Protein backbone atom coordinates (compact mmCIF):
# COMPACT_ATOMS: atom_id res chain seq x y z
CA UNK A 1 0.00 0.00 0.00
CA UNK A 2 1.24 3.55 -0.78
CA UNK A 3 2.62 5.44 2.22
CA UNK A 4 0.34 8.49 2.79
CA UNK A 5 3.41 10.47 3.93
CA UNK A 6 4.66 10.42 0.34
CA UNK A 7 1.40 11.69 -1.18
CA UNK A 8 1.33 15.40 -2.16
CA UNK A 9 -0.34 17.53 0.53
CA UNK A 10 -3.96 18.57 -0.11
CA UNK A 11 -4.27 22.37 0.06
CA UNK A 12 -7.37 24.05 1.56
CA UNK A 13 -8.35 27.65 2.23
CA UNK A 14 -9.29 26.88 5.83
CA UNK A 15 -8.45 23.78 7.87
CA UNK A 16 -10.36 23.36 11.13
CA UNK A 17 -8.96 20.95 13.75
CA UNK A 18 -11.93 19.42 15.57
CA UNK A 19 -15.53 19.00 14.46
CA UNK A 20 -17.11 19.57 17.87
CA UNK A 21 -19.25 22.52 18.95
CA UNK A 22 -16.77 25.25 17.99
CA UNK A 23 -15.26 23.66 14.88
CA UNK A 24 -18.54 22.92 13.09
CA UNK A 25 -20.14 26.17 14.15
CA UNK A 26 -17.28 28.36 12.90
CA UNK A 27 -16.98 26.30 9.70
CA UNK A 28 -20.71 26.84 9.10
CA UNK A 29 -20.40 30.56 9.69
CA UNK A 30 -17.45 30.87 7.30
CA UNK A 31 -19.27 28.87 4.62
CA UNK A 32 -22.31 31.12 4.98
CA UNK A 33 -20.04 34.14 4.62
CA UNK A 34 -18.91 32.83 1.22
CA UNK A 35 -15.62 31.16 2.19
CA UNK A 36 -15.03 28.00 0.13
CA UNK A 37 -12.74 24.98 0.46
CA UNK A 38 -13.10 24.47 4.22
CA UNK A 39 -11.86 21.15 5.64
CA UNK A 40 -12.80 19.95 9.14
CA UNK A 41 -10.56 17.22 10.59
CA UNK A 42 -12.48 15.17 13.18
CA UNK A 43 -11.77 11.54 14.18
CA UNK A 44 -15.11 10.64 15.80
CA UNK A 45 -17.99 9.08 13.89
CA UNK A 46 -20.57 10.50 16.29
CA UNK A 47 -21.17 14.04 17.50
CA UNK A 48 -22.43 14.69 21.04
CA UNK A 49 -24.41 17.56 22.56
CA UNK A 50 -22.56 17.40 25.87
CA UNK A 51 -24.69 19.80 27.97
CA UNK A 52 -27.44 17.17 27.82
CA UNK A 53 -25.13 14.54 29.41
CA UNK A 54 -25.93 16.21 32.76
CA UNK A 55 -29.65 15.71 32.17
CA UNK A 56 -29.00 12.07 31.21
CA UNK A 57 -27.07 11.47 34.44
CA UNK A 58 -29.74 13.33 36.42
CA UNK A 59 -32.53 11.26 34.85
CA UNK A 60 -34.29 13.95 32.78
CA UNK A 61 -33.06 12.99 29.27
CA UNK A 62 -32.20 9.82 27.35
CA UNK A 63 -28.64 9.14 26.16
CA UNK A 64 -29.91 8.69 22.59
CA UNK A 65 -31.03 12.36 22.60
CA UNK A 66 -27.41 13.55 22.95
CA UNK A 67 -25.89 11.95 19.85
CA UNK A 68 -26.08 12.30 16.05
CA UNK A 69 -23.84 10.99 13.23
CA UNK A 70 -20.99 13.41 12.48
CA UNK A 71 -21.83 13.20 8.79
CA UNK A 72 -25.37 14.52 9.46
CA UNK A 73 -24.28 17.56 11.48
CA UNK A 74 -21.33 18.72 9.36
CA UNK A 75 -22.47 21.94 7.63
CA UNK A 76 -23.31 21.67 3.92
CA UNK A 77 -20.39 22.69 1.70
CA UNK A 78 -17.80 21.81 4.35
CA UNK A 79 -15.53 18.78 3.80
CA UNK A 80 -15.05 16.34 6.70
CA UNK A 81 -11.79 14.38 6.89
CA UNK A 82 -12.20 11.58 9.43
CA UNK A 83 -8.79 11.48 11.09
CA UNK A 84 -6.97 13.08 14.05
CA UNK A 85 -4.32 15.76 13.71
CA UNK A 86 -1.00 14.42 15.03
CA UNK A 87 0.93 17.68 14.73
CA UNK A 88 0.92 21.14 13.17
CA UNK A 89 3.88 22.71 11.37
CA UNK A 90 2.86 26.38 11.61
CA UNK A 91 5.99 27.61 9.82
CA UNK A 92 5.07 25.46 6.82
CA UNK A 93 1.27 26.11 7.02
CA UNK A 94 0.72 22.39 7.32
CA UNK A 95 -0.94 19.81 9.55
CA UNK A 96 0.01 16.14 9.67
CA UNK A 97 -2.78 13.67 10.32
CA UNK A 98 -2.60 10.50 12.39
CA UNK A 99 -2.24 8.26 9.34
CA UNK A 100 0.60 10.42 7.96
CA UNK A 101 -1.45 12.34 5.37
CA UNK A 102 -0.68 16.09 5.20
CA UNK A 103 -2.97 19.08 4.69
CA UNK A 104 -1.78 22.57 3.79
CA UNK A 105 -3.79 25.62 4.73
CA UNK A 106 -4.10 29.30 4.08
CA UNK A 107 -5.71 29.68 7.53
CA UNK A 108 -5.88 27.20 10.41
CA UNK A 109 -8.50 27.15 13.18
CA UNK A 110 -7.76 25.03 16.24
CA UNK A 111 -11.01 23.83 17.86
CA UNK A 112 -9.77 20.56 19.38
CA UNK A 113 -11.47 20.98 22.76
CA UNK A 114 -9.98 19.92 26.09
CA UNK A 115 -8.53 16.55 27.13
CA UNK A 116 -10.09 14.50 29.94
CA UNK A 117 -7.28 13.17 32.18
CA UNK A 118 -8.90 10.10 33.71
CA UNK A 119 -5.45 8.78 34.73
CA UNK A 120 -4.58 11.90 36.76
CA UNK A 121 -6.08 10.49 39.98
CA UNK A 122 -4.81 7.06 41.10
CA UNK A 123 -7.71 4.61 41.14
CA UNK A 124 -10.09 6.79 39.11
CA UNK A 125 -10.21 4.53 35.98
CA UNK A 126 -10.92 1.47 38.16
CA UNK A 127 -13.59 3.40 40.07
CA UNK A 128 -15.33 4.34 36.80
CA UNK A 129 -15.31 0.69 35.70
CA UNK A 130 -16.77 -0.47 39.01
CA UNK A 131 -20.57 -0.61 39.53
CA UNK A 132 -20.50 2.34 41.98
CA UNK A 133 -18.66 4.83 39.71
CA UNK A 134 -20.09 7.10 37.01
CA UNK A 135 -19.75 10.57 35.49
CA UNK A 136 -21.74 13.00 33.39
CA UNK A 137 -18.56 13.78 31.37
CA UNK A 138 -18.72 10.74 29.03
CA UNK A 139 -21.66 9.35 27.07
CA UNK A 140 -21.47 5.79 28.51
CA UNK A 141 -20.81 6.93 32.08
CA UNK A 142 -23.69 9.42 31.97
CA UNK A 143 -26.03 6.62 30.91
CA UNK A 144 -24.63 4.52 33.77
CA UNK A 145 -25.15 7.36 36.29
CA UNK A 146 -28.88 7.60 35.75
CA UNK A 147 -29.97 4.19 37.18
CA UNK A 148 -27.17 4.31 39.76
CA UNK A 149 -28.59 7.51 41.29
CA UNK A 150 -32.23 6.56 40.72
CA UNK A 151 -31.93 3.23 42.57
CA UNK A 152 -30.02 4.58 45.57
CA UNK A 153 -32.18 4.54 48.70
CA UNK A 154 -29.60 5.00 51.46
CA UNK A 155 -25.84 5.41 51.94
CA UNK A 156 -23.28 7.99 50.84
CA UNK A 157 -22.99 9.52 47.40
CA UNK A 158 -20.01 11.72 46.53
CA UNK A 159 -19.87 14.27 43.69
CA UNK A 160 -16.44 15.58 42.65
CA UNK A 161 -15.51 18.76 40.77
CA UNK A 162 -11.75 18.86 39.97
CA UNK A 163 -9.28 21.74 40.21
CA UNK A 164 -7.73 23.25 37.07
CA UNK A 165 -9.12 24.18 33.67
CA UNK A 166 -12.43 22.51 32.84
CA UNK A 167 -15.19 22.44 30.28
CA UNK A 168 -18.23 23.91 32.06
CA UNK A 169 -16.61 23.16 35.44
CA UNK A 170 -19.84 23.52 37.42
CA UNK A 171 -21.52 20.76 35.40
CA UNK A 172 -20.30 18.32 38.09
CA UNK A 173 -23.04 19.73 40.32
CA UNK A 174 -25.98 19.47 37.93
CA UNK A 175 -26.90 15.77 38.30
CA UNK A 176 -26.43 16.16 42.05
CA UNK A 177 -29.25 18.71 42.41
CA UNK A 178 -31.48 16.70 40.07
CA UNK A 179 -30.84 13.51 42.04
CA UNK A 180 -31.52 15.29 45.36
CA UNK A 181 -34.86 16.56 44.05
CA UNK A 182 -35.70 12.98 42.99
CA UNK A 183 -34.73 11.51 46.39
CA UNK A 184 -36.63 14.30 48.14
CA UNK A 185 -39.81 13.42 46.24
CA UNK A 186 -39.22 9.69 46.86
CA UNK A 187 -38.92 10.42 50.62
CA UNK A 188 -35.41 8.97 50.95
CA UNK A 189 -33.21 12.09 50.91
CA UNK A 190 -32.84 12.04 54.70
CA UNK A 191 -31.31 8.55 54.44
CA UNK A 192 -28.69 9.58 51.89
CA UNK A 193 -25.53 11.48 52.81
CA UNK A 194 -24.77 13.69 49.80
CA UNK A 195 -21.20 15.02 49.71
CA UNK A 196 -19.86 17.58 47.22
CA UNK A 197 -16.13 18.25 46.82
CA UNK A 198 -15.35 21.56 45.05
CA UNK A 199 -11.88 23.01 44.34
CA UNK A 200 -12.63 26.67 45.11
CA UNK A 201 -13.28 28.60 48.34
CA UNK A 202 -17.00 28.97 47.51
CA UNK A 203 -19.47 26.89 45.57
CA UNK A 204 -19.09 28.89 42.33
CA UNK A 205 -17.22 32.15 42.91
CA UNK A 206 -19.82 34.81 42.07
CA UNK A 207 -21.81 36.03 45.11
CA UNK A 208 -25.24 36.12 43.43
CA UNK A 209 -24.79 32.59 42.02
CA UNK A 210 -23.28 31.32 45.28
CA UNK A 211 -26.40 32.58 47.09
CA UNK A 212 -28.76 30.69 44.74
CA UNK A 213 -26.75 27.47 44.92
CA UNK A 214 -26.15 27.69 48.68
CA UNK A 215 -29.92 27.99 49.17
CA UNK A 216 -30.42 24.71 47.26
CA UNK A 217 -27.54 23.07 49.15
CA UNK A 218 -29.19 23.99 52.45
CA UNK A 219 -32.59 22.78 51.22
CA UNK A 220 -31.20 19.37 50.17
CA UNK A 221 -28.82 19.11 53.16
CA UNK A 222 -25.73 18.62 50.98
CA UNK A 223 -22.38 18.42 52.80
CA UNK A 224 -19.94 20.66 50.90
CA UNK A 225 -16.15 20.60 51.22
CA UNK A 226 -14.48 23.62 49.59
CA UNK A 227 -10.80 23.89 48.49
CA UNK A 228 -11.00 20.11 48.10
CA UNK A 229 -9.17 17.74 45.77
CA UNK A 230 -9.31 13.95 45.50
CA UNK A 231 -5.86 12.37 45.68
CA UNK A 232 -6.66 8.66 45.56
CA UNK A 233 -9.58 6.28 45.05
CA UNK A 234 -9.84 2.65 46.11
CA UNK A 235 -12.56 1.19 43.91
CA UNK A 236 -12.63 -2.17 45.66
CA UNK A 237 -13.20 -0.68 49.11
CA UNK A 238 -15.36 2.13 47.67
CA UNK A 239 -13.39 4.79 49.49
CA UNK A 240 -11.42 7.86 48.51
CA UNK A 241 -8.95 10.26 50.04
CA UNK A 242 -9.31 14.00 49.59
CA UNK A 243 -7.41 17.00 50.90
CA UNK A 244 -8.75 20.41 51.82
CA UNK A 245 -7.32 23.89 52.23
CA UNK A 246 -3.78 25.12 51.93
CA UNK A 247 -2.56 22.71 54.61
CA UNK A 248 -3.59 19.74 52.49
CA UNK A 249 -5.30 18.07 55.45
CA UNK A 250 -6.24 14.56 54.23
CA UNK A 251 -9.54 12.82 54.99
CA UNK A 252 -10.97 9.54 53.86
CA UNK A 253 -14.54 8.99 52.74
CA UNK A 254 -16.46 5.77 52.03
CA UNK A 255 -19.06 5.92 49.30
CA UNK A 256 -21.90 3.89 47.83
CA UNK A 257 -21.98 5.93 44.62
CA UNK A 258 -19.32 8.23 43.16
CA UNK A 259 -19.82 10.78 40.37
CA UNK A 260 -16.62 12.37 39.12
CA UNK A 261 -15.86 15.19 36.72
CA UNK A 262 -12.33 14.28 35.52
CA UNK A 263 -9.31 16.61 35.71
CA UNK A 264 -8.76 18.25 32.32
CA UNK A 265 -5.86 19.74 30.36
CA UNK A 266 -4.89 21.01 26.91
CA UNK A 267 -4.53 18.47 24.08
CA UNK A 268 -0.75 17.71 24.03
CA UNK A 269 -0.29 18.23 20.25
CA UNK A 270 -0.86 22.00 20.76
CA UNK A 271 2.27 22.59 22.84
CA UNK A 272 4.23 19.98 20.87
CA UNK A 273 3.47 21.95 17.69
CA UNK A 274 4.66 25.26 19.15
CA UNK A 275 1.14 26.76 19.30
CA UNK A 276 1.08 27.26 23.10
CA UNK A 277 2.59 30.31 24.83
CA UNK A 278 4.73 30.72 27.95
CA UNK A 279 1.64 31.32 30.16
CA UNK A 280 -1.07 29.46 28.28
CA UNK A 281 -0.89 26.11 30.13
CA UNK A 282 -0.62 24.26 26.84
CA UNK A 283 -3.71 25.88 25.28
CA UNK A 284 -3.46 27.83 22.00
CA UNK A 285 -1.84 31.22 22.61
CA UNK A 286 -4.40 33.61 21.09
CA UNK A 287 -5.24 37.27 21.49
CA UNK A 288 -8.20 36.87 23.88
CA UNK A 289 -10.26 39.48 22.02
CA UNK A 290 -9.57 38.74 18.31
CA UNK A 291 -8.90 34.97 18.77
CA UNK A 292 -5.92 35.26 16.38
CA UNK A 293 -2.67 33.51 17.34
CA UNK A 294 -0.16 35.72 19.14
CA UNK A 295 2.66 34.81 16.71
CA UNK A 296 1.27 32.93 13.67
CA UNK A 297 -1.01 35.37 11.84
CA UNK A 298 -2.89 32.68 9.89
CA UNK A 299 -3.65 30.54 12.96
CA UNK A 300 -6.78 31.06 15.06
CA UNK A 301 -8.37 29.19 17.97
CA UNK A 302 -11.62 29.09 19.90
CA UNK A 303 -13.57 27.06 22.41
CA UNK A 304 -12.07 24.86 25.08
CA UNK A 305 -8.68 24.59 23.26
CA UNK A 306 -8.01 28.34 23.24
CA UNK A 307 -6.13 30.12 26.03
CA UNK A 308 -8.89 32.67 26.49
CA UNK A 309 -9.73 34.09 29.90
CA UNK A 310 -13.44 33.18 29.95
CA UNK A 311 -15.05 30.19 31.58
CA UNK A 312 -14.91 27.41 28.96
CA UNK A 313 -18.45 26.67 27.74
CA UNK A 314 -20.63 26.19 24.70
CA UNK A 315 -22.32 29.49 25.54
CA UNK A 316 -18.96 31.25 25.16
CA UNK A 317 -18.71 29.77 21.67
CA UNK A 318 -21.91 31.46 20.52
CA UNK A 319 -19.98 34.75 20.72
CA UNK A 320 -16.53 33.41 19.85
CA UNK A 321 -17.57 31.78 16.56
CA UNK A 322 -19.14 35.06 15.39
CA UNK A 323 -16.02 37.08 16.29
CA UNK A 324 -13.57 34.60 14.76
CA UNK A 325 -15.55 34.23 11.53
CA UNK A 326 -15.88 38.02 11.12
CA UNK A 327 -12.16 38.53 11.76
CA UNK A 328 -11.01 35.75 9.45
CA UNK A 329 -13.27 36.97 6.64
CA UNK A 330 -11.90 40.50 7.15
CA UNK A 331 -8.32 39.23 6.86
CA UNK A 332 -9.18 37.20 3.73
CA UNK A 333 -10.53 40.44 2.22
CA UNK A 334 -7.36 42.34 3.12
CA UNK A 335 -8.85 44.20 6.08
CA UNK A 336 -7.91 44.42 9.77
CA UNK A 337 -9.70 42.03 12.18
CA UNK A 338 -11.85 44.40 14.24
CA UNK A 339 -14.40 42.15 15.98
CA UNK A 340 -13.77 41.66 19.70
CA UNK A 341 -14.80 38.81 22.02
CA UNK A 342 -16.01 40.19 25.35
CA UNK A 343 -15.16 37.15 27.52
CA UNK A 344 -18.81 36.00 27.91
CA UNK A 345 -19.37 32.53 29.34
CA UNK A 346 -22.29 30.62 30.85
CA UNK A 347 -22.96 27.71 33.15
CA UNK A 348 -26.61 26.67 33.46
CA UNK A 349 -27.20 24.85 36.76
CA UNK A 350 -30.18 22.53 36.88
CA UNK A 351 -31.06 22.91 40.57
CA UNK A 352 -34.05 20.55 40.60
CA UNK A 353 -35.85 18.41 38.04
CA UNK A 354 -37.80 21.39 36.75
CA UNK A 355 -35.85 24.58 37.56
CA UNK A 356 -32.43 26.02 36.64
CA UNK A 357 -30.10 28.93 37.40
CA UNK A 358 -28.16 30.56 34.54
CA UNK A 359 -24.72 31.75 35.59
CA UNK A 360 -23.89 34.16 32.75
CA UNK A 361 -20.70 36.16 33.36
CA UNK A 362 -17.65 37.72 31.74
CA UNK A 363 -13.93 37.07 32.21
CA UNK A 364 -13.87 39.34 35.26
CA UNK A 365 -16.66 37.25 36.76
CA UNK A 366 -19.23 40.05 36.51
CA UNK A 367 -22.79 38.91 35.86
CA UNK A 368 -23.74 39.55 32.20
CA UNK A 369 -27.27 38.17 31.78
CA UNK A 370 -28.28 37.96 28.11
CA UNK A 371 -31.65 36.19 28.37
CA UNK A 372 -33.22 38.50 30.95
CA UNK A 373 -31.96 40.51 33.92
CA UNK A 374 -32.75 37.90 36.57
CA UNK A 375 -31.74 34.75 34.68
CA UNK A 376 -29.29 34.05 37.54
CA UNK A 377 -32.27 33.24 39.78
CA UNK A 378 -33.86 29.81 39.92
CA UNK A 379 -36.75 29.58 37.47
CA UNK A 380 -38.85 27.08 35.55
CA UNK A 381 -38.29 29.00 32.30
CA UNK A 382 -34.51 28.63 32.59
CA UNK A 383 -35.00 24.87 32.88
CA UNK A 384 -37.26 24.70 29.82
CA UNK A 385 -34.67 26.64 27.82
CA UNK A 386 -31.77 24.46 29.02
CA UNK A 387 -33.55 21.13 28.59
CA UNK A 388 -35.68 21.72 25.48
CA UNK A 389 -34.81 24.94 23.63
CA UNK A 390 -30.98 24.84 23.64
CA UNK A 391 -30.71 21.27 22.24
CA UNK A 392 -32.89 22.22 19.26
CA UNK A 393 -31.00 25.48 18.73
CA UNK A 394 -27.76 23.48 18.88
CA UNK A 395 -28.65 20.79 16.35
CA UNK A 396 -30.48 23.03 13.89
CA UNK A 397 -28.84 26.46 14.15
CA UNK A 398 -25.54 26.54 16.08
CA UNK A 399 -23.86 23.65 14.26
CA UNK A 400 -24.84 25.14 10.91
CA UNK A 401 -23.33 28.51 11.87
CA UNK A 402 -26.74 30.19 12.05
CA UNK A 403 -26.65 31.11 15.76
C1 LIG B 1 -20.73 17.21 30.84
C2 LIG B 1 -20.65 18.53 30.17
C3 LIG B 1 -21.66 19.44 30.36
C4 LIG B 1 -21.60 20.69 29.77
N1 LIG B 1 -22.63 21.56 29.95
C5 LIG B 1 -22.61 22.76 29.34
C6 LIG B 1 -23.72 23.64 29.45
O1 LIG B 1 -24.71 23.33 30.10
N2 LIG B 1 -23.64 24.84 28.83
C7 LIG B 1 -22.55 25.20 28.10
O2 LIG B 1 -22.53 26.30 27.53
N3 LIG B 1 -21.48 24.38 27.97
C8 LIG B 1 -21.49 23.17 28.56
N4 LIG B 1 -20.45 22.32 28.40
C9 LIG B 1 -19.25 22.77 27.70
C10 LIG B 1 -19.34 22.62 26.19
O3 LIG B 1 -19.82 21.35 25.83
C11 LIG B 1 -17.94 22.85 25.62
O4 LIG B 1 -17.46 24.09 26.09
C12 LIG B 1 -17.93 22.85 24.13
O5 LIG B 1 -18.30 21.59 23.63
C13 LIG B 1 -16.54 23.20 23.62
O6 LIG B 1 -16.52 23.13 22.23
P1 LIG B 1 -15.16 22.83 21.47
O7 LIG B 1 -15.46 22.84 20.02
O8 LIG B 1 -14.10 23.71 21.99
O9 LIG B 1 -14.77 21.36 21.95
P2 LIG B 1 -15.56 20.02 21.68
O10 LIG B 1 -17.01 20.28 21.47
O11 LIG B 1 -15.15 19.10 22.77
O12 LIG B 1 -14.97 19.53 20.30
C14 LIG B 1 -13.61 19.22 20.14
C15 LIG B 1 -13.51 18.23 19.01
O13 LIG B 1 -12.14 18.11 18.63
C16 LIG B 1 -11.88 16.76 18.32
N5 LIG B 1 -10.44 16.56 18.46
C17 LIG B 1 -9.72 16.44 19.59
N6 LIG B 1 -8.42 16.25 19.29
C18 LIG B 1 -8.32 16.28 17.93
C19 LIG B 1 -7.23 16.13 17.03
N7 LIG B 1 -5.99 15.92 17.45
N8 LIG B 1 -7.49 16.20 15.70
C20 LIG B 1 -8.76 16.42 15.24
N9 LIG B 1 -9.83 16.55 16.07
C21 LIG B 1 -9.59 16.49 17.40
C22 LIG B 1 -12.71 15.97 19.31
O14 LIG B 1 -12.97 14.67 18.85
C23 LIG B 1 -13.97 16.83 19.42
O15 LIG B 1 -14.99 16.40 18.56
C24 LIG B 1 -20.49 21.04 28.98
C25 LIG B 1 -19.44 20.13 28.79
C26 LIG B 1 -19.52 18.87 29.37
C27 LIG B 1 -18.41 17.88 29.14
Automatic annotation (TrEMBL):
One GO molecular function term of this record is: sulfide:quinone oxidoreductase activity
- According to the entry, every stretch annotated as the FAD/NAD(P)-binding domain falls at 13-309
Q: Would you kindly state one Gene Ontology biological process term found in this protein's UniProt entry?
A: sulfide oxidation, using sulfide:quinone oxidoreductase
Q: Which Gene3D superfamilies match?
A: FAD/NAD(P)-binding domain
Entry-linked PANTHER family = SULFIDE:QUINONE OXIDOREDUCTASE (PTHR10632), SULFIDE:QUINONE OXIDOREDUCTASE, MITOCHONDRIAL (PTHR10632:SF2)
Q: What is this protein called?
A: Putative NAD(FAD)-dependent dehydrogenase
Q: Which source organism does the UniProt entry give?
A: uncultured Microbacterium sp
Amino acid sequence: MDDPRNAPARRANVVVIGGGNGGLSVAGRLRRAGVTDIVVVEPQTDHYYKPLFSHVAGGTARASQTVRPQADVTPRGVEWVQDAVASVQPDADQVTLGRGKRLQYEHLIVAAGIRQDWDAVPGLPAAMLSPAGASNYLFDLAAKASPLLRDLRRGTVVFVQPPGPASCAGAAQKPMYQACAYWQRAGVLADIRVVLLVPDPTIFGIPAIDAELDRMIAEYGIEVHTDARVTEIDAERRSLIFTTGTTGHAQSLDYDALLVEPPQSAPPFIAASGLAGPDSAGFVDVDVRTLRHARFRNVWALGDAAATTNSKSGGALRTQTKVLAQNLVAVLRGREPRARYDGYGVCPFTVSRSTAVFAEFDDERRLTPTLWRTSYRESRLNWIIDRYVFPQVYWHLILQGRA
